[in-house]
Amino acid sequence: MSLKPLVLPPAQPRQLPSGEPSGDTLVRRAPSSRPHPHLNVPAPWPQVRADLRLWIVLGDLAAVLVPVWALLLLGRADTALAVGVAGGGQVVLVWSMGGLGPGAVDHGRVPSGRLALCALLTCPVSLLAAQTLGAPRRACLLLLALQALLVLAGRVLEGSWLYRRRLEGHALRRTLVVMGPGAEPMMYQLRRFPGDGLMVVGYLSSGVGDSYDRPADPVRSAQHVASLVADERIDVVMTVGSVTPGDLLNIMRGLEGTPVRLLVAPGLQDVEPERMEGVPVTHGWTGVVAVRTRRTRALGKAVFDRVAGTLLTVLAAPVIGLAALAVRLDSPGPAFYRQVRVGRGGEPFTLWKLRSMYVDADARRAALVSVGGDAGNEVLFKDRADPRITRVGHWIRRLSIDELPQLINVVTGEMSLVGPRPALPEEVAAYETEARRRLLVKPGLTGLWQVSGRSDLSWESTVALDRHYVENQGGGMDVRILARTVQAVLGGRGAY
After folding, report:
1. Backbone phi, then psi, for 333, in 5-degree steps?
2. Same structural domain for residues 75 and 129?
3. Domain containing residue 389
4. Same domain for 453 and 346
5. How far apart are CA 210 and CA 27, in angstroms?
6. 344 and 328, same domain (yes or no)
7. In a domain, 1, yes or no
8. Do both 310 and 416 map to the same domain?
9. How far apart are CA 427 and CA 466, in angstroms?
């Protein structure tokens, strides 16, 4: 498969004109059109980056000062001073640990782990300040936690704003892509995610022969790279695929003394940063990728599933009871529906759900498929206007209430709170090799595919998301998925 010219999303503005330039410029440019001179031109990335950094700094300081200001209004100057000292130390510690680095500013990532660690490390400072100033220690600790939550909220708002602006074509970084062998999958992903904020303006090649339809100009020297970066006002140079060590060295030397970021994408798929660790080798370094789930992590996940599943079952019991009553009143038949699903390692188990269809739904499925009623994908059966769904069924599916009885399966250890979708035996029979990797972990009440579009996704996308979870499962990813589940349920997209 040869690399085609990159087609950027329509929202991305201010591209360079297409064509084959001559001389010491880019041989391949991203096709585009120059905007009308009277239209508003987005601010250049260095200016946007400075504004974002200032926004983060002011937001962090506001998170510290708001509780201090409230205490001063209440006449508690001693407590206000203690809280201000501890909160200021907490924020400075976050900044020193990369809270103002490229991940936070350029990519809008929320350093939640670092923030929690800094809050914990600042607790002794808070206690010492409280003892010195005669302030109540418990109140100081609670307000320190409040400051951390306010910092976290400000970072989340900043990251969300940056993502939305990039989807609208703003806050983009002019990017020069250097392509090596194996670049095609990464270039495909680059086209799929405009929210990363990379506006590709041209390409160079490394170690590439005539395998491309329109080969790009090779990396000639460090001076060549420096000239292109200056002429094209490049913000980011991104290497994709197997760029040769010599070309990578020329790129790094060409970027010396410039604020340009270098992103190296070697083509690793389904590898989260948490799985990688840099280790030194002779005259350089290499990355160690964890390929096994640590036993402590697996044990922690199992304990969390049982404890959290039990608590959620108690909390959800009234909702399940009311929904079960509505199901019984709406249509004849039992309130609950049991079905055999396939769990980890191919072991079958009985899954519990609230009945959202008429009692003869299974018998009517074949007839529905025969008349073209399947709006799903190659393996999963889904229909936006499925006539077998009851009136109450539409509502409980829309809000995912029909899935709540699966908490019983979580408590009994047959399922997890987070994991791939529990599959039917006939679906598993149609699995290919990659799809069978979904059976390496327990199926989940929610998962990556549920928070990424649910039934609107193709089968390939569903498998890719579940495979990514299987390869990178961990506590951090589970927390992110659980947080996104609330948004997905309220939005209802793909729930039918």
Report:
1. 125, 175
2. yes
3. 295-491
4. yes
5. 15
6. yes
7. no
8. yes
9. 15
How much of the chain exceeds pLDDT 90, in percent? 36
Q: How far apart are CA 422 and CA 406, in angstroms?
A: 10
Tens digit of pLDDT for each residue in 263-310? 988 767 667 767 777 777 766 677 777 776 667 777 888 899 999 999
194, 8 Cβ separation under 8 angstroms? yes
Residues 453, 424 contacting (CB under 8 angstroms): no
Both tokens of 329, joined, read 């009143």
Chain-centroid distance, C-alpha 477 = 9
Tokens of 298: 């697996």
Q: Which residues of 148-164 are buried (b: 16+ CB within 10 A; e: fewer)?
A: bebbbebbeebbeebbe
Q: What is the largest CA-CA distance in the chain?
A: 78
Strand partners, 263: 238
pLDDT at 86: 93
Looking at the structure, tell me whether residues 262 and 316 fall in a common domain: no
Give the residue from 180, 175, 183, 178 showing the smallest Cα distance to 200. 175
282 domain residue, yes or no:
no
Do 213 and 185 reside in the same domain of the chain?
yes
CATH of the domain at 208: 3.40.50.11060
